[in-house]
């Protein structure tokens, strides 16, 4: 979703702009150091997009271009996305990485919203409550759609298998912590993890990533990509 657009809420036909930080509260501090996209990419970049019909809930076009360019630069064979939504990113990844790559993506089905183990944010509900997960990626042969709650799903078959993991599901602090821990298990040594929505209307993302950066050595190379809400971390191979 847009870094600067607050979700709309409204009752009885009236629409008002909701500030999830609270009326007087300042946006969260951003402790993760900034890098330009050129620090992780070589230019020029070349990407393909399945369409330009971006909707609220997707990444921005710039963020999508960075995700796809990075996946291509890594020559990713297996990508795992936590939070499918309409499947725009999954389908774009599938298109750019080709038929030999596998894109695995998980989403919480709307009918299971009541079974989520950890607290869901009120601004996450709109992205969960949709007719189907992965509407745009379901016909792509190299996309594997999984359904479940990231707090209870058994991810173990993909542990250590993924070249790139994209964390973009529930934006509450507890879920971001949970999903980040899963991402670190999914990624292969030397692989890369991306997060969306750092420094946006979702304070839980900034709180969790700030904490990881400040106090957890596994996240020592965590960086925020300037001009976007993406954070990136290359997970070091084990020291020999
Ligand atoms: C912001 S959207 C993801 C956007 C998508 N990654 C893209 O690039 O277009 C967040 C998604 O996370 C899913 N989600 C929220 N909580 C979840 C949970 N506990 N487990 C799995 N998926 C969850 C929602 O259903 C929603 O589809």
Outline the structure in words.
α1 packs parallel to α2. The protein has 240 residues and is of the alpha/beta class. It has one domain: Rossmann fold (3-Layer(aba) Sandwich). The protein is globular and about 40 Å long. The strands form two sheets. Strands 3-9-10-8-7-4-5-6 form an eight-stranded mixed β-sheet, with helices on both faces. Strands 1-2 form a two-stranded antiparallel ribbon. The longest helix is centred in the last third of the chain and has 14 residues.
The beta-strand count equals 10
Bound molecules: S-adenosylmethionine
Query: Which structural class should the secondary elements be placed in?
Result: alpha/beta
Task: Summarize the biggest pleated sheet.
Answer: 8 strands, mixed
CATH superfamily: Vaccinia Virus protein VP39
Distance between the termini: 41 Å
CATH architecture level-2 label: 3-Layer(aba) Sandwich
Mean pLDDT: 91
Number of helices: 5
Low-confidence runs? 1-18
* Fraction in beta strands: 15-25%
Name of the top-level CATH class: Alpha Beta
The portion of residues assigned to helices is: 10-25%
Encode the helix/strand succession as letters: EEEHEHEHEEHEHEE
Principal-axis shape equals globular
Roughly how many Å is the radius of gyration?
Answer: 17 Å
CATH fold naming: Rossmann fold
- Give the strand order, joined by hyphens, for the main sheet: 3-9-10-8-7-4-5-6
Q: Please give the domain count.
A: 1
